[in-house]
Structures are given as C-alpha cells and as structure tokens.
C-alpha cells in the first residue's frame, strides 16, 4: 500500500476539560510494553534506498540541540548552519536530492541564545525552540517561569519546550498539573508548546501515561520525554507508552498531538526503530516534523556516516562531515 | 523506488534474507533426501518419494524419501541396539553430546532458520528469533538434565526406545522438544518429522553426525501419516510421544492400547484470551498479535478465543482492528513482515472452509486489508466477533490466523466461557489486578496460563494440556518424567484372583447386613437390583453385595463431579481428614483383619499387617497432602513461572483384586490427598473390606461425593468407567486383564490413564506400593507465567 503523505497544516490541539476518569483509567503494563519494544526491531527492517530515505526523514525531524552552560552566539550560529545544511551536498546529489532539500526540524537552545539562533536562521523556515520554565528542574518561581515563556516568544522562539512540575505527578495532584500546563500554553500564545514530562523522574510508566493525557487535555502541542538532563532519558518503552496516549487522545478528540523523544538517541539504527514505532502505532501522518521530533545532538553525525556508506559502499568517518 | 519518493510514502520496502545458503545445502544433496538410520544418511533404493515445497511460492524444494516398513524395522532395531549403551554411558557423557548439539545448532543457526522458513512458510523473524534459539535452549537445558539425572532422579531409569511423531508448525523446535528429554534420560529415538516439513530434521541429522552422536541413538524417518502410524504401533517401541491434531492423537491412543507403551500426547487447542476492563488494553491488543498471528495462527496453544469484558469491548475491538490493519503479510524471508505463508494449500483450504461455513452461523468478520501476495499460500489476519459458544467457530480449532470472540460480564462468567471447550491447553489473562489474575489462573482448565502475556515458552517450564489437548509435559523437571520409569517397577505377571465359591447359605449372623454401594455420601442400592454372593475361603457365604452397573457408574461420576471443590479445599483439611480416617480405621483393626482373613484365608497375623499397613498409608498421604509442593521455574523473564501441582479432577480407580483393603487405600488415598474426587471399583472377589469402609468414611468428615465406591463385576463396568467423558483420569490395578480396554476406551475424551499392563505391584513395598509416582499420577502440573515489573 503506497499513499502520498498528507502534509496539510493541522489545527492546534485546543485541549479539553480535565477528565480524570479517562486519565486515571490509563494503564501501562511494563513487561508487555517492553516485550513489544524488544520485538519491534526484529519485525521491521529497513534496508538500502528505503533506509536512506528513512534516515533523511529522521534528519528532518531532529531538533538540533545545544543546552550547555558554555553556549555562545558563535557556537549557536555554527549549529544553525548545520541545521540548514545537515548533509553534504555531494551526498544529497547522489541520493537524487537538490541542495537545501532537507533541513533539521528545529534548533533548540536556552532563552539567552534565542536571538542568536533567530538571526542565524533568518530567511529559512527552520523554527527556533527555546527550553523554558526553569529548565531543567522547573522549580523557579511560578511567575518567573511564566514570564520566561513570554520573553522567549518575544525574542522570536516559535516553539517553547516547557518542563512540568514532576511533584504534581508524584503526588497525583492532577488538577495542579492541568492548571500549570494550561497556563503555560496560554503564555505561549502562537508559539507551539512542547511539554517535557521528564519521564525518568516519574517513577512508573503508568504515571507517564497519565501525565501525558493530562498535558494533552491542557493543550500541549507536543509531549516530550526528557530534558536530556535526567538519569534516564528517552527509551522505547516510555515512547510506546506516550504515543499510545497520543493515539487515544486523537481517537477521542480528533486532535493530533506531536511526540518528541529526547536524550539518548544517538545511533542511526535507533532512529529507524523510533520511526518504525511511530509508523506502526500512530501512522504515517506522524512521520512529519510538525508531529514528530528527535531531541538529539549527536544523532545527526551518525546518520551522515550511514548515508555516506549507502552512497559509496564504504564505511565513513566523522571528520568527513561538517561539525554542528 | 527513488529516495525522494520514499520520503513521501515512507514505505518499508523489502528486506529479504537470502535463501541461497539453504538452497545450496539442498543442492549439495541433489535435492534428494533419504533416511537417517543408525548414524548414516541413507538413500535406500526403490523407495517412493514425495515433494517438499516452499508454501510461499509453491516451488519445489526437495524430494523426500517415504520410509517403508522395512526401514522402520531397521530404525527400531538400530535404536534398540544402541539403547543399553546410551543409557550406560551415564548422564554426564550424554550431557556432552547434548551440549554439542546445542552448540552446533547455534553455529548453524542462520542456515536452520532460513531452511525452516523456506520449508514451512513462517516469517524469518520467528525462525531466527524464536524457533531456533528455543531449540538451542532446549538442548542446553537437557544437557543439564542429563548431567543431574543420577543425582537428582536416583530411582529413575530410561524407558527404552521412544517413537516420536511431530507436526509441521514448529518442525525443528518440536523435534528438539521430543528428542532432547528422551536422549537426556537415556532413551534412544525413532522420530518422524511431518510430511510438509522434513528438511530441518535432515539438516539436524547432519549435525548429529558432526557431534559424533553414537550410531542408532537417533533415527529419523520421513514419510506420511502411515509411517507415523507404523512407528507408534511398532512392537519394538516402549514410549510414544506425539504432537499434532486431537483426531490423530485419539487414533494413537486407540492403536497403542494394551501394548504396554508409555504415551504422551500434545494435541489441539482453542485457548482462551481473557481481557478484563482494567487491563492495559493496548498491550492486550499487541499480545493478540503474538497469540493468534504468530506462525500464521498455526499454533496449538494459539489464543484463538477472545473474551473481552463488556464495558471495554467496543473500544478494545476498535483498537484491535486498527492494529490488524497494520499487520504485514508476505514473503517469509522478508524481515519486515508479521505473517508468512500457510504451510500447504490443504491447510489453507481447511481454514477457508471452516471460516466460510462457520460464518453462516453468524459472527462479524473483520479481515485485515493488508496486501496479500498474489502467488503462494497466504491467508489474511481475520477477526470474527459476536461468535458464541454455540457456533462452530468458537468450538473448533481453525489452526490459522483467525480469531473469534465474544464478551463476558464477570470473572465467573469469563471462567465459564473459557472452560466451555473440550480442549485445555493454554490461557492468557489480561488484568492489572493481581488478585483477579491469580484467582483465575488456577480456575481455567489448562496446562499453561500466561498473565498479561502470551505464547511464552522455555525449556525450564513444562508445556502440555488437559482434557483433549492431551497429557504429559514437555520441558522442565516435569517433562523428564515422560521419559523415565521407576527402577523398582515390578515385572512379575499378575495372577487372576478368582472369587471363592461355596454354598449360598448366609453365614450365621445376628441381623442381616446389606452392603450397598456408596455414592454421594450415601449408601445406595445398586440400580440393577442384583447382588452377588461373596464366599469365605472356607466356602461359606459372607454376604451378598450390590452388583453395580453402568448407571451406578454414571451416578458415581456425577457425585464425584459435584464434589470437585474438594480440590480447592486446603491441603491441611485434606490431611486432617486422611489422618482421621486412619484413626477411625485403627480402632477397628481387628474387625477389618477378621474380614480380610475370612475372605482371603490369610492368617490373622498377615491380615492384621494389611490393616496396619493401610493405616500407615493413610498417614503417609495425610503427610504428603500439604507437602507435595510445586516449583518456581527459572524461566528467562523478569517474573516467575509457577509450576503448580493441581488435582486431576475426578478419577476412576479400579482397585487391585488381591489386597482388598491395602490395595484400595493405597490407590485411593493419594488421589484424595492431592484433592481429587474418586469413583472406586473395589476388589471384585473381596469387596467387603470396601463396603465395611463406608462407616469409617462416614465418621471421618469426608465431604459427600469425594469418594464413591461401586462394588461390581469388573468385566461389566470397566469399559463404561473408562469411556466416561466426565472423568479426567482412570487407574487400573485389577487382575482381569483390562488394561487394553481402559486405554482404548479412555480415547473418548483422552483422559489420562494409569494401568498395570498385567504386572503385579507389591503393595507392601514402599517403592511400588506408595510414594511420589502415585502423587504424580494424582496431579497435573500447571505452569503459570507471571511477568512483573512496574
């Protein structure tokens, strides 16, 4: 079955009333979820030109990220240029693609780096995402967290990656989580909001499932696994748990919510597994950057090497590809 | 397809595994295979042959030799010759061979996988990730079993030569399940792979040569069902093991009746898959992919009956259909497919016919819209909802990728629906409530229960069925017992114990005592209205006893079934009651001894010894009642596999004729201790010890119906009892040579049997007259897989 992907712009998720009956009925059986994740790579194998295409797709979904204390404007510019030209031109040509055909999904930085990124990406369609709300712990004063969103939006960020208050999940204070998320969404205005659950700190997959639903009910455009700073970041079981809630949400409301696994995905092969998981559980529509992103910094490098291997038949080396 | 286009479609494309190495191997043999007898791959001349085809394409793969009777004789002879030596080299030496086989399977794992998928049509993912690794695991496990045999099973020895017939759905895995335990325990083997799928067995023959397996230890004969039939009925075979359809299993039961062969059967199933409203529904949907779309549904334990709690049925079915629509059916060697080809056009036709005819009785079919290859033998994943127990589709095994389902309201109704079948192989239970899961697993009649999972297999955990899904276990310690017997088994031929004759004058007595039957806790007159006289050894008439007939058997079984909750009473209670029986018997020692003496002519001392030994035996089984523990197997999951010893259910017991009290107590007490209810036919010539026992039973708090005693002419009732389809097992210790009748008649519902084959047990002997073999016969192992993790 071959169908051309539907790329129409989707309406934003407006959220719903807080429906605790729904959220609390969500179950996540860890062993069964792990079995599915373990079996998936064996069920779906993507080879040759299909693999090349899927890897390019993965690149188009990367939020190329730098979130370091030593970030500078020049360092961010370097990353932005990598975002514009993620793959060597000769390789693109060999793959039958024109230069500039592909960019990463976004650039993801701290607030202070937003202006630099916006400047570097001027004239492109690549959005700048800012991590926000007291990232990564989310424990700064509430008013400051809200204000931080506004500052970033004013600075030109089109996407805001907020962190939720993990304590609301751990104490099962779902109303507080819903209210917080809703106010973050409002503060974002036209900018899209990604809700970082910090799944590595939520204790159980059931909590992950429930927090996912609450954040979607409160109007999240995306739900995202991690800050990249927790002990455990994106995993397949966490991803499966979250995207099943996205599917459930879509089935009940008709709204598409995006998914962003972040942290720990650094191999081309892993990115294929993630894409296959999304395709299997959510369908092709979710394989577009408006609904799927990888939060990753080193993944791109591995994909570039695999692409060169596909084009030349020889294993590649990191220094043959431009630094991001 | 161009990269740019793929970026739009995001299709998977093809990821084919090359068939070339397997085709090269076939070509090396000129696509013509013979038989493996006495360590050699032979190509006997003048044999008929048949074709093995690739079901995905219909293409010819190889020509396979059809074994003739002379070949079977030759193979059995080779196995017989090899057996004593193979047993004598000891467990440790056998372990080395099994270990070598495990290693060689791993070394050639990809060749085995590709060959299996070519020949059978199963996805390469399954042969590569499941079948072949489980084969290697089975040999490793059983290398260990051989290593430990002398130490851990000191009273057991090999049965001799095993004749084994295996199915086409897991060709090499079933071969491993059959031969690994047989060889580990010192048996030698003649095995026949299924006609559709012989190739991996023939490749296995080569690795046996590579491993230096001694000549004759394993013999592989190819051919059709006729070859299988001749192997199982061959007089040189001591043990028959079969995996396949219930229909053929029944024939084997009948064909081998009275031949003195041990038998284990692993047959069909229609296993329930229960989804409760608190389950992780998405995971339960995914579980169904592994339950019914694994191996194209051609799995005996496939979760093929779906029962969903009403409140979530709609949403669950919707999720399930959405999942089905994503399944991929195609070339078995493509690494991106979920379902491959149906094994053969005949099987495809059988699925099609059953589904088409069944749908006329009702049911809503949802067929996955997935692409199906034009050529080859492919059946789409199918769900049929609103199918009720009254429909054939709910009762008959389809053995294809077709799931049928309905809804239930309560846990009790779920159990009732799950158990409404002639089969009893496996069950899956999906709920996040541990109380519910662990309450239900024992209530469902099956050999394997999977909590929040499905189709979990491991060599360390026994697999096998109840009811018409067969008997015997494969895997685990419990599976080893299918290939051993007690070293202390008697070889003495049983002597017919004839009733005494005499004059029909009643013995002087104060008031006439009328021994009746004992059914449902009450003394009951025999339905026939006839009695037969019992004479003393001196020829005096001791009493007239009721002459039970088939209706009394029927009533006895009814009573036993209504007392089945005995099995869920506490072991402590059962122990107390057995102790109490012993206590009540002991105060009447003299009376019982006198009775034995008067009937048998034994002197007072030896009659007293029989009573005392009977009391001791009651104490022994009272002791065992709360000590015959199950096990937790070391299965490779985060979780536990609980091996629970469950009562069989209702057991018919034909008592020994010779020791009227000790024989009865020795056979009945273990059954009661393990929680079974029993229908007992006492000694025919000496029935009065049994009828005297009524008062002991009545004063010992045994619930009504747990024990039912029917005095009768054995010739008249054994067949009825053995053929009764509500009994789960039958034991025969009589002296009238009914072992054959029992085994043959048991085929009605494939109940378990335990017969003496005309051999005399020494009931005083602690090895022959009591012990674990009785407990094993009184129980069935259920493996409950409980994965955990939050």
Strand content of chain A: 5-15%
Second rung of CATH, namely the architecture of the largest domain in chain B: 3-Layer(aba) Sandwich
Average pLDDT of chain A works out at: 96
- Biggest β-sheet description of chain A: 8 strands, parallel
* Whole-angstrom Rg of chain A: 19 Å
Explain how this protein is built:
- The complex is a heterodimer of chains A (324) and B (790).
- Helices cover 46% and strands 10% of the residues of chain A.
- The model of chain A has no long low-confidence stretch (mean pLDDT 96).
- Chain A is built from 13 helices and eight strands.
- Chain A has a single domain, classed as TIM Barrel, CATH 3.20.20.70.
- An eight-stranded parallel β-sheet of chain A has the order 7-6-5-4-3-2-1-8.
- Chain A starts with 19 loop residues before the first helix and ends in a 12-residue tail after the last helix.
- With 324 residues, chain A is of the alpha/beta class.
- Chain B folds into three domains: 20-267, 3-Layer(aba) Sandwich (Aldehyde Dehydrogenase, Chain A, domain 1); 271-464, Aldehyde Dehydrogenase, Chain A, domain 2 (3-Layer(aba) Sandwich), CATH 3.40.309.10; 517-637 and 647-761 and 768-785, Aldehyde Dehydrogenase, Chain A, domain 1 (3-Layer(aba) Sandwich), CATH 3.40.605.
- Chain B contains 26 helices and 32 strands.
- The chains are: A alpha/beta (324), B alpha/beta (790).
